[in-house]
Amino acid sequence: MELVTIDDIRTAARQVAGHVVRTPLLEASWGDPDRPLWVKPESLQPIGAFKVRGAFNAIGALIAGSDPVSGVVAYSSGNHAQAVAYAAAIYGLPAHIVMPEETPAVKIDATRRHGARVVLCAAGQREIVAEQVAAETGAVMIPPFDHPGVIAGQGTIGLEIAEDLPEVRSVFVPVSGGGLASGIGTAIKALCPRAVVIGVEPELAADTAEGLAQGRRVDWPITDRNRTIADGLRSQPSELTFAHLQNVLDEIVTVSEAEIRSGVRELAFRARLVAEPSGAVALAGYRKVAAPAGPAVVILSGGNVAPEMLGQILSG
Predict the structure, then answer these.
(1) Which CATH number fits domain 6-50+148-315: 3.40.50.2300, 3.40.50.1100, 3.30.465.10, 3.90.1150.10?
(2) Would you state the torsion angle of the CA atoms of residues 307, 256, 285, 22, taken in this order, to the nearest 10 degrees?
(3) Can you tell me the distance from the alpha carbon of 276 to that of 208, in angstroms, rounded to the nearest whole number?
(4) Of 51, 62, 106, 134, which alpha carbon lies 20 to 30 A from 290's?
(5) Active-site residue, selected from the candidate residues 29, 40, 43, 51
(6) Is the distance from CB of 36 to CB of 213 less than 8 angstroms?
């Protein structure tokens, strides 16, 4: 299987330039003294999450190709949906987005505001329904993680970390479908070989941790994965992303629901940053495991959280 390379990520950086925010590394003085903490706030992207990087890279490559593009299709619990809808609108393409019915309304509404057609489906059916929509419309599928262009786009985060903090010793990355960790891990391993890359996953959706321990992908029922409050981390890796994760992750740690909520509160009260639960798992991982001494970066992957949920977490 051909894996994404640092050259692919550098090409992606040129492709997405001008469309995405080059997010800063924010020093957090309240981190552990022997592991100075830095936060990479992808919540500052135009759609509030890192997914915009992969969407612009994949769709931009389509536009630059020789074949005409009549539209794009995506399936997502929220952030990839918004990213594809936003990128498609910038490029003037119709977007058809398939979302599970249990997706928070804040993410569905945001996707529609970008002009996309939203198709709701039952839990566990989004890939099947998306394939049907693609067949009906002739639009091109942009999957949320199982795509080299998407992985390379997400990897631009790692490229920025390496440029801004070359002495980094540990990078904590949320894991779900695996595109984010695959891309960031590829960049960090190429440019900061002394650093360790640590994946962080909810205990209630820890299929990747189990799979890596067994050396093969494992399947968790969607009803089990849907238990976690981190609704953006309920996917499972593909063969492509799992191969990347085996290659670039030094460790994977699982965190409890209480630890995820604590991460949301810590980012809000100490960093003054809004994080959705999925976006706070990396900080929860940093708090849970002993990484090498030296600078540590946590990826705040997104901030699209329903106000009522945020209020409940912050008051808890």
Answers:
(1) 3.40.50.1100
(2) -20
(3) 21
(4) 51
(5) 51
(6) no
Q: What's at 113, amino acid-wise?
A: R
Set 170, 176, 189, 315: catalytic member: 315
Answer whether 116's CB lies under 8 Å from 88's CB.
yes
Backbone angles phi, psi at 124, to 5 degrees: 80, 5
State yes or no: is 315 an active-site residue. Answer: yes
For residue 281 the two structure tokens come to: 């798992």
Task: List every span in the chain annotated with CATH 3.40.50.1100.
Answer: 6-50+148-315, 52-141
Q: How far is CA 128 from CA 24, 56, 78, 119, in A?
A: 38, 24, 17, 12
Instruction: Output the pLDDT for position 77.
Output: 74
189 annotated active-site:
no
Q: How many CA atoms lie within 13 A of 135 on its CB side?
A: 6
Instruction: Tell me the per-residue pLDDT of 116-156, one tens digit each, with 9 for 90 and over.
Output: 999 999 988 889 999 999 999 999 999 999 999 999 999 99
pLDDT band for position 281 (cuts 50, 70, 90): very high
Q: Tell me the Ramachandran region of residue 74: left when phi exceeds 0, alpha when psi lies from -120 to 50, beta otherwise.
A: beta
Closest C-alpha to 99, from 110, 88, 90, 91? 110
Task: Measure the CA dihedral 144/137/126/153, to 10°.
Answer: 0
pTM of the model: 0.94
